[in-house]
Amino acid sequence: MEKYTSRKIKSFVLRTGRMSTMQKKALVSFAPLYCIKFREQILDFNALYKNSNDTFLEIGFGMGHATIEIAERNPDKNYLGVEVHTPGVGRVLNEINTRKLDNLRIIRHDAVEVLEHMIGSETLNGVHLFFPDPWPKKKHFKRRLIQKEFVSSILPKLKPGGYIYVATDWEPYAEWILEIFQSFQELKNRYNPYADKIDWRPATSFERKGIEKNHKIRNIWFEKLY
Fold first, then answer.
1. Active site residue: 102, 133, 169, 199, which one?
2. Which of 53, 142, 187, 223 has its CA 20 to 30 A from that of 17?
3. Phi, psi of 222 (to 5 degrees)
4. Is the peptide bond before 193 cis (omega within 30 degrees of 0)?
């Protein structure tokens, strides 16, 4: 595996996308209801969701197909999605309103800054990263989201026993992720080395495309020991 380099990372590379009329309307109508504005202030999850249920963060939900289904199937858990892709945000906002999902909220901002400024210590039960961009070319490895620096920013936010769950269809990226996660003493691999498909995670469009290309889907699940 190629060595990773330390750098100030962002959780995304902004790509423009065409928005449907529905997505545009949802952004205008529902963002004030279900989007949380970025601010340098720690979120109070109990106040935000009006309960003390477990809370899970999803970073980069794309068009949000899995995000919506997971939230709808688990009304006793709270979900916070972070994404900057405007069509995806619009779609998820519309679905939150249509399905009356009181347990799903959105932050439309860079996840690195959200983690730093808005997530309190030991407040998350899990972090989901489903099919992050693998940046397969060696010259672009520095753009990969999962770097040591980024994992170091997640760990203090997880409760002991909380997890980081990554799914990818790019084998070299899976190996990269394993090596980085294994470098942290406070993380333990729940599987050896990859999990079978996690039953509660719906298939995403990226996953289906990967399967069509005969890519192996790798599920990586590490838990925080302390």
1. 133
2. 142
3. -120, 145
4. yes
